[in-house]
């Protein structure tokens, strides 16, 4: 690119970074591949080098102004793969994947991603790619993986770190901040409108909101138990059609049923599904161009008929298209929000009850399954927060995230769950997921 691009962070991306620094933790997306008969390390090194030319190869450079807009700068990438020295057995793969989630990752100081390989006894290998969610969402990661496999080099025009002198940065950022300040009145008005529309939700959440206690900050970090699996796409689609739904609607119904079996229904027996909606466009350099919808699902109905849930999802998407911009209007306040406010607001962004995260990446390019240039035997994806503790999860009302992606004629899924007062182990989560799949008559292969 000969013309410098605007590398100013979008409000949503700056909000993600502000939350990361205020809370001391942030979401990470992990992609996992298992090769049963060995992996091509040279192919993976090529993949690693090619990632340096994708959207995830960037860092955040802070503005020198206290309430300035931060900017994207380029990143050269890690020097090499992180290959484990000792071998592990096949049934230890997921323990290793959990351990990889603790490897340092940082969207400001780097690295914004890391790539690890675990050789397995018998000649196989597991591969893990972790990406900071502040650097890119699941779709950005998917596109970056496909580009790296194909050897496609993107030049987004991000300048190198420190390209601006402090004087230049101050002069430029004062102009940008002043321009941003003009949006504050509309942002306040939009925030007040959202607050009025969600008055009951916010008041209920506010009563439970509290800053992190010393017990929370000193508690041991944990990995939320998670299981992985897949259903043949043909089986999934046939069941969806039989119930009057589609592949995506059946996934939402499955998420609702898992939530029901984990006791996350509200007083009326409904499950609150929180569904992210990607607004990424061609050539989009935003890290998180996301909106979301909230849908109430009847968990006792979805196993027999998906028509009601299908209609509810469609209506929510129609309403989002009509009011999405107004919901995003308060984001202009993000650069002016102090850390202490972010900590207090963490609970306020939650809906009443116990929402179920329901994120479906959809159909993925076949290249996503080929980090070394050949097809892996097993694929998995996970989202989660590095640094979360039991007291934090208690305060947030537990955690349930159901994720899915379609690849190689299979619907791959993962379920992460932590519930206060329950046995929080992979085996326990696996039992719940198997029961939910049985509710739909879906045969699945599950790993935990």
TrEMBL record:
Residue spans of biased composition, Low complexity class: 203-217
Superkingdom assignment: Bacteria
Region of interest (Disordered), ranges: 197-217
Protein name according to UniProt: Diacylglycerol O-acyltransferase
Source organism of the structure: Mycolicibacterium sarraceniae
